[in-house]
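User: Structure tokens for this complex, please. No commentary.
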Amino acid sequence: MLRHDIVVVGAGLAGQRAALAAAEAGHDVALVSKLHPLRSHSGAAQGGINAAIGAEDSVETHIYDTVKGADYLGDQDAIEFFCQQAGPTVIEMEHFGTIFSRGDDGSLARRAFGGAGFPRTIYAADRTGLALLQGIYERLGTETIRMYNEWFLLSIIVRQGRVQGITAFDRKTSEVEGIAAKAVIVATGPAGRIYGRTTNAHSCTGDGVAAAYRAGANLKDMEFVQFHPTALLESSILITEGARGEGGILTNAQGERFMARYAPHVLDLASRDVVSRAIVTEVREGRGFPGGYVNLELMHLGREKIESRLQEICDFSRSFAGVDPVTEPIPVYPAQHYMMGGVGTNMRGETNVPGLYAAGEAACVSIHGANRLGGNSLLETLVFGKQAGVAAATYVSGTPEPTLLPADVEREVTRFRALWDRKEGESPSALRTELQKTMDQFVGIYRDPDELFRALRQVRALQERYRNVRVADSATAYNIDLSDAIEVGFLLDLAEVIVVGAIARTESRGAHTRVDFPARDDKNWMKHTIARWTPGGPELSYSPVAYTRWEPKERVY
Amino acid sequence: MFAAEKLITVPFDVYRYDPARGGEPRYQHYELQLAPHTPVLTGLLRIRDELDPTLTLRYSCRSAICGSCAMLVNSKSRLVCRTPVGPEVAEHGRIVVDPMRNQPVVRDLVVDQTPFWDRYEQMEPHLIPDPQRPMPEGRTTLMTPAQVDRFKDTPRCIACAACYSACPAVEADPEFPGPMALAKLYRFVVDPRDGGHQARLRKIQTSGLWLCLRCHLCTEACPKEVRPSERIRDLKELAVRAQGGTEPGSRHAIGFLKNIEEGGTLNEMKLVRQTSGLIGTAKAAGQGIRLVRKKPEMLKRPKTIEGIDEVRKLYRALEKDEEVPL
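Assistant:
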């Protein structure tokens, strides 16, 4: 059996930042990831990272914009801390070596983003995630950390009221190992592949979130799913909000700049929930293009600007949609993009399970509330990744050795073998495809109660069929039929929590829009949804939202 | 935009091999009906879903940013997520998919990237603090857009290893760090925040920089236009300018340059001396004698060409045009 003080699962920005903080504190840290760290989905983030460093801007405005963007479901104490950390975080990443775009005076370049009062989104062309991922990975290389690259998480072991470690297998050999640890930090990102139309990578299957849920951790606000307004038609590949930040506009089939109807003040730079609803409404009311989409026009920005600041977007549009944004509009439609919900934590990344921490998109602090602002997620990974690493480091110093028993590992090995040995049954990809169709169709931007109930029935039927999932491939090396089968199980558990939360929340707030309850209901629903695993499905409870200074107001952009 | 396209029959021949089970590598044939703009990755995943779940490959983002899915498509290094099937079928009649080269096969299309990552790590890929110029307290360093431009397109690198797979120097010489590692090194050598420029250049001069064959296959293979071969050329230039000729590779380049300036043409005997020194030349005497027997004109001192003044004028003009050294 392997042993480390702290095991971080997931090696995107949050996981690497957590591992760095824990290693700097002098602990024996392991970083477990099913991908090589540089292949993490953080690298796909495009537009930028928010920090109010401009002379005309202020931390106070960043806080307000975030509180408002969250539709007053964010915890204001956490948001205050988060925005205060923005400047120091970006400076630190620059000192680590991140290559940002610069202004003529040599300072960090900034662009406008949706829902923000000032241009405060610092960027590296349109590959900010990649730049930050390279920056943190380079810095991490100067510390001693045990890397388990291409290891796949199976479970988090909790016994005697605290975390004792994890089980995982090496994808090269498919050998299951127990890794004992005093603390485990979950930083496995989102579960966007619950949906078919998603900007997320194939690997975004919520492994750590689901494992934490099964181990007794509370999930928070899972019904809040962000749909990005501008994903490429057909492939759903992300087209950054930075495209509109640089001056891009949305038009319908009548050539109208339709955002004027929905957000008269800031037009295309309204919050994402607002723009996504607007696009869906345009298409539903017959003003979209045949095939159901609207146009994102950049042509007026000129070749030089488009090709320098939106270099990857040019590449994506040309390769994946056959359009050249310099001369033609880009066909776009909303797609699932981000999960505001996740493993419930406080500002230190602590969950309800002693020794279990979470950070990044896998976690819900909550700072994004009901709707995340663009540019706040990269910042979140770094601010709260560090917090979780520091908190875990403090915790392990005063915690006795973990007792991961051979029986703990054996139990997982038995389940794993049983799954793998089932050669007849449901194919993982068929179950996944059906889940994705269900969620795309019934748990999207506008939510109808009948459709939500239908979705719940279908998800539960899929869970039932999943008991009989088969793994056709018996090879030991890099068996993705095997990992697919495990991932589908994670996706199904989390989909159920999303749907159950969405059925219960009889109001419309941020990204959660109920057609039968179109208004926000602060009296009854200004509270976080907490979901706890039980054998019969998620059990919901609610917890208060932390308020400091901002009274809920109507949200107008 | 892609118009509604008719589906075409796409024949795939996919490399299959499981070293754990032994046997010989083979190609397995599959056929799908796909729209011509469909990425090869989508085709491979449909093979998995509909025809053969035992086929394995590495992939993640499907948008050319995670660097997972570099493979050979009809013998060319490609990210399969952004290689449409239509043009491949039009040109080759089918789609042959192989794992990348220069890395051992784990299974099917998945390769062991350890050697690739090891070479990356050898470059000390992190900022080396400069004690003379510590990072400013409480603010970022300043970096002009011109300084950012010096990184060229190296920040676009997604570490997909397509260049490493395409590189004949990697195949021939385990000492050669490979194009990606060298492009990464370049990124640090031009970084104004890095304190290790000279040490990095000194080290790389004698640990593989001059083994590059200048074939530019890496630049051709790179899906993100990082142009590693051009950055390797830049590294050589920076190394020579900072340290002069430290070993045969750089001395050869300098000798070449001087030869042409002196006479407008190559003086091969002199170049051997310039590259290897007197002792080195003496050691290679056997080879030299064999060469001279075949090509006696080598011994003649080449005549200075007509128009040498023009050549020298070009030298002067180019010198003026040079970027300020580090």
